[in-house]
Write a structure and sequence with these properties.
- The protein is mainly beta.
- It has a single domain, classed as Porin, CATH 2.40.160.20.
- It has one helix spanning 2-20, and strands at residues 29-48, 51-71, 74-92, 95-116, 119-138, 141-162, 165-175, 181-192.
- A hairpin with a 2-residue loop joins strand 6 and strand 7.
- The protein starts with a helix and ends with a strand.
C-alpha cells in the first residue's frame, strides 16, 4: 500500500506541474504507436491442491497504442497489451508443480504531461480490462481455466519528440487483485498525425 500511496503522490505532483506548464511546442492530435518490453508477475502462495509456492516470472511483452493529445499537458490513450506467456514451477515429492499464464488486455488512461522543450515527462492512470488463460499442473495432473477482470493501471515515463515522432520509455503498474506484483517496462515510439 505504501508504494501505491507514494506513486499517487508523485503522480499528483507531476500532474499539477503539468497543468501550470506551457505547451513548449508539443503537437496536439491523433497518434499511433507501439512498444516492446518486459512483463514481471509475482504471486505469493499459489495454491495447487497440496502444494503452494511463490510464483515469479517475466517475459517479453508488447503493446499497440492509439491516443489523442488534447493539449500540451493532457492526452488520452488506449492500448492493446500482450503481457506474454508467464510460467514458473517447483519440484515437489508428488512431481513438478507449475503454473503458466498467458495474459492480454486493453487499457484506457488519462495522461498528465509536462512539456520540457522537445521532451515530455508524463504520468498516467486508468483502467485495464484483462484476460488470462491459466494452466496449472501437479505431476501428471493438469487443469486449464480462464480468468478476467477490470482493474486499475498507473504509470510514468518520458518521451523525446522529433516533429511528429516521439520515442518513449515507461513503466506501468497493474493493480490486479490476484497478483501481488504485475508491472510492465517498455520502450517504443508514437507518431502524431
Amino acid at each position: 500500500m505504501g508504494r501505491t500511496t507514494g506513486t499517487a503522490a508523485v503522480a499528483m505532483a507531476v500532474a499539477m506541474a503539468a497543468l501550470t506548464a506551457s505547451p513548449a511546442g508539443a503537437e496536439s492530435g491523433l497518434y499511433l504507436g507501439a512498444s516492446v518490453g518486459r512483463t514481471t508477475l509475482a504471486i505469493d502462495d499459489v495454491d495447487l491442491d497440496l502444494e503452494s509456492f511463490d510464483f515469479e516470472a517475466d517475459d517479453t511483452a508488447y503493446k499497440v497504442i492509439v491516443g489523442y493529445r488534447l493539449l500540451g499537458f493532457l492526452a488520452v490513450e488506449g492500448s492493446y497489451i500482450d503481457f506474454g506467456s508467464l510460467s514458473d514451477s517447483i519440484d515437489t515429492i508428488e512431481g513438478t508443480a507449475s503454473l503458466e499464464a498467458e495474459l492480454t488486455g486493453f487499457d484506457a488512461v488519462a495522461m498528465g504531461m509536462l512539456p520540457l522543450g522537445i521532451a515530455d515527462l508524463f504520468v498516467k492512470a486508468g483502467v485495464v480490462v484483462w484476460d488470462a488463460d491459466l494452466r496449472s499442473a501437479l505431476g501428471e495432473l493438469s487443469v486449464e481455466e480462464s480468468d478476467s477482470g477490470t482493474d486499475l493501471v498507473y504509470g510514468a515515463g518520458a518521451q523525446v519528440r522529433f516533429k511528429g515522432l516521439a520515442v518513449r520509455a515507461e513503466i506501468e503498474f497493474f493493480d490486479v487483485a490476484d497478483a501481488d506484483n504485475l508491472y510492465l517496462i517498455t520502450v517504443g515510439a508514437t507518431y502524431t498525425f
